From TrEMBL:
Leader sequence segment: 1-18
Native source organism of the sequence: Cyprinus carpio (Common carp)
Protein's recorded name: Neural cell adhesion molecule 2
Annotated GO CC locations: plasma membrane
Domain Ig-like: 20-107, 112-195, 206-295, 365-455
Location(s), subcellular: Cell membrane
Pfam entry (one): I-set
Fibronectin type-III domain ranges (all copies): 459-555, 557-652
SUPFAM superfamilies cross-referenced by the UniProt entry: Fibronectin type III, Immunoglobulin
Membrane topology value: Single-pass type I membrane protein
Highest rank taxon of the organism: Eukaryota
Keyword terms, alphabetized: Cell adhesion, Cell membrane, Disulfide bond, Glycoprotein, Immunoglobulin domain, Membrane, Repeat, Signal, Transmembrane, Transmembrane helix
InterPro entries in the record: FN3_dom, FN3_sf, Ig-like_dom, Ig-like_dom_sf, Ig-like_fold, Ig_I-set, Ig_sub, Ig_sub2
Segments traversing the membrane: 658-681
Length: 724
């Protein structure tokens, strides 16, 4: 009996040694894009081949990014510079001489680390512009991006900041006060990953020029010098250059520039130095220029030992005559533009002195407005403004039919005065209040008057060219042309009235402001409607346009469904249903028929009309399917939409690799449990057939008498020892 059991165990152990056992050092690995990783596959047994297969089921061979190294019962797979498309299930498959195959798998998940792409700092913007601070960051899954300024998070959109969909930060009307460090922080919640970039925002301010003195006088051929000053402000600090006759001036013996170019000294002035000099200031934000003028006097003639100078300006109205110790400025045909300060400056080699005089020009009143017609209606106040320029200031009066309106007003009229303006407020109470009003302005130079007309406003005329477009079962678009006359008062909105031709009740629809397009909704299908349009202003509602008729479309079958394929999970496939023309009635259901391309029998699935997708399951791996989808409403069925799609190959985690998913210790444990169960069955068989074995020993130990022979006891002990 003992030999039989030992022989049986030998066969069992010998048979188990012929079974291959495959394991991989790792079962699931997460790897970042660009990283490298190796996997070791170990086989217990005597394999004749040991191969790796990629997630597409293809046998892997060495390449630039793949290395394979086999050492008998071990094989190492190395992946370099991982890419997103490398993700999936990798198989290590072993084959023995008898043709048996075993495999183990490892799941490789690839993710993209937080990566900031070309995030520049500083980022510069022009003052007053809308600044978009760029923070281009990517990862998988998509990161959550937050912005911080002055150590505080910018949580929501404000008048100053807006968070854009592309994760950039928009700053409205950027100013110098918005300069500083902005932090762009990206997080991936699933991995607890976080990173940030500090971006310096720089605001460039366009240059502004300040000129203390606009024009200068000098005498030619007397070795005189003139210094122009041009102060420029901006950010960054502007560069200042000087130009004359379109050519930039360079530092020379005659042109001396100081204080970073803000001062220009012209030495040894000659007659041809007269004219304009241009100061230009420029920086990153822009460029600005300012003209300064140099008037150069020349010797005209000499009389009795006195030198006389004459300078005539280009327009011929201004003439300067002088000799040493005296200068006379003559202006012919004085204009308002001549009003202002005149400076007389005397210079010598040891210094100078300046005296200012002011030219005051008096003139008769001049009216500043051409708006002389005003509209109103009974009970609606209107302001008539009379604006005047004059020197000295003018007194202003209002007249109505040769009667002077008192300055404090009278009845339904009020007068409000301000320098250079008189405002007459009239509240018409009857037709007599409409007509002509006269504004008279007078000073010691002269008198002027201007006539204003207060006209009675009217309601607008009727709109015309009413058209219907985009007519469907329940909606229609009304377009029209605005009236030729608004009645003197701006139109506030349009009123569209429409009704069923069989009804007497009109329904109202207002336009959005003065838009001439109105959408009518909630119409009944296959119904004739009448529509008309009127304009409304402050006076009231104008006449209606000509009534137009239109008929909504009848209820019909839906249009064919529009479908978008989307891969599902496992053995399912999801088809998205895009909203379609429902024919005037809600979609009740979608009738979905599907089958494999090798079968004739269709399977049918009903999907409620409110759904926006169809989920087909369970499907077969690596199989092409044909789908026919039809929409149904109360009117009937639409034309079918046909879709084809293919299911992927079965994932590489198979039943054959079930044990390969277990560790080596677990496999040994399962084998020992099976061996123990077999020993128990053998022992029970020996108990019933031959009255021997461990169970027989225990039974006799408990039940037999103490008078048993020593020989039997010895035999039993030997049997026990055999099993232990």
């Amino acid at each position: 009996m003992i030999r039989t059991v030992l022989c049986f165990l030998g066969l069992l152990i010998g048979g188990s040694q012929g079974v291959l056992q495959v394991s991989i050092s790792l079962k699931k690995v997460e790897l970042s894009v660009g990283e490298s990783k190796f996997f070791t596959c170990t086989v217990i047994g005597e394999p004749v081949s040991l191969d790796w297969y990629n997630p597409q089921g293809e046998r892997m061979v060495p390449s630039q990014r793949v290395a394979l190294h086999n050492e008998g019962v071990r094989s190492r797979l190395t992946l370099y510079n991982a890419k997103i498309e490398d993700a999936g299930i990798y198989r290590c498959q072993a084959n023995d001489a008898q043709g048996h195959t075993q495999e183990a798998t490892v799941v490789l998940e690839i993710y993209q680390k937080l990566t900031f792409r070309d995030v520049r700092s500083p980022q510069e913007f022009r003052q007053g512009d809308v600044a978009e601070v760029v923070c281009d960051v990517t990862s998988s899954p998509v990161p959550v991006v937050s912005w911080f300024y002055n150590n505080m998070e910018i949580i929501e959109d404000t008048e100053k900041f807006q968070l854009l969909q592309n994760n950039n930060l928009q700053v409205q009307r950027v100013t110098k006060a918005d300069e500083g460090v902005y932090r762009c922080e990206a997080r991936v919640e699933a991995r607890g990953e976080i990173d940030f970039r500090d971006i310096i925002l720089v605001v460039n301010v366009p240059p502004v020029i300040s000129v203390p003195q606009q024009s200068f006088n000098a005498t030619a051929d007397y070795g005189e010098s003139v210094t122009f000053t041009c102060r420029a402000y901006g950010s960054p600090e502007p560069d200042v250059t000087w130009h004359r006759k379109g050519v930039q001036l360079q530092e020379s013996e005659r042109y001396v520039m100081r204080a970073r170019g803000t001062t220009l000294t012209v030495r040894n002035i000659q007659q041809d130095d007269g004219g304009s000099y241009t100061c230009k200031a420029s920086n990153k934000a822009g460029e600005v220029e300012h003209e300064l003028f140099l008037k150069v006097f020349e010797i005209s003639y000499t009389h009795q030992g006195h030198i006389y100078l004459i300078k005539i300006f280009p327009d011929g109205r201004v003439e300067v005559r002088g000799r040493y110790g005296e200068s006379i400025l003559t202006i012919v045909g004085v204009k308002l533009s001549d009003w202002g300060r005149f400076d007389c400056e005397a210079l010598s080699r040891i210094g100078g002195h300046q005296k200012s005089m002011f030219l005051d020009i008096e003139y008769a009143p001049k009216f500043q407005t051409n708006h002389t017609i005003f509209f109103s209606w009974e009970g609606n106040p209107v302001n008539i403004s009379c604006d005047v320029m004059s020197n000295p200031p003018a007194t202003m009066l209002w007249r109505r039919e040769k009667l002077t309106i008192p300055s404090e007003g009278a009845g339904n009229m009020r007068v409000y005065s301000a320098p250079g303006r008189s405002l007459l407020e009239v509240t018409p109470m009857s037709d007599r209040d409409f007509g002509r009003y006269n504004c008279t302005a007078r000073n010691n130079i002269g008198m002027r008057f201007q006539e204003f007309i207060l006209a009675q406003a009217d309601v607008p005329s009727n709109p015309y060219s009413v058209r219907l477009s985009s007519v469907a079962q329940r909606v229609a678009t009304v377009t029209f042309t605005k009236p030729d006359s608004h009645g003197g008062v701006p139109i506030s909105h349009y009123l569209v009235k429409y009704k069923d031709i069989s009804s007497q009740d009109w329904k109202d629809m207002k336009s959005q402001g003065t838009q001439t397009v109105v959408l009518l909704t909630n119409l009944e299908p296959n119904t004739t409607y009448e529509v008309r349009v009127a304009a409304v202003n402050g006076k009231g509602q104008g006449e209606f346009s000509r009534t137009e008729s239109f008929q909504t479309l009848p209820i019909r079958e839906p249009s064919p469904p529009s479908v978008q394929g989307q891969r599902g999970v496992g053995k399912a496939y999801r088809l998205g249903l895009v909203k379609q023309d429902d024919g005037g009635m809600p979609i009740l259901e979608y009738i979905v028929k599907y089958k494999t391309d090798k079968e004739e029998q269709w399977m049918t699935k009903l999907v409620p009309g409110v759904n926006d997708f169809v989920l087909l399951q369970p499907l077969q791996w690596n199989t092409q399917y044909e789908v026919e989808i039809t929409a149904r409403n109360v009117k009937g069925l639409s034309e079918p939409t046909f879709v084809k799609f293919s299911m992927p190959q079965k994932p590489d985690i198979t039943a054959d690799s079930l044990f390969s998913g277990l560790g080596l210790g677990a496999v040994v444990g399962v084998g020992l449990a099976g061996l123990l169960l077999l020993l128990v069955l053998v022992d029970v068989s020996c108990f019933f057939l031959r009255q021997c074995g461990l169970l027989m020993c225990i039974t006799r130990k408990l039940c037999s008498k103490k008078t048993a022979t020593s020989g039997k006891s010895k035999e039993l002990e030997e049997g026990k020892a055999a099993y232990l």
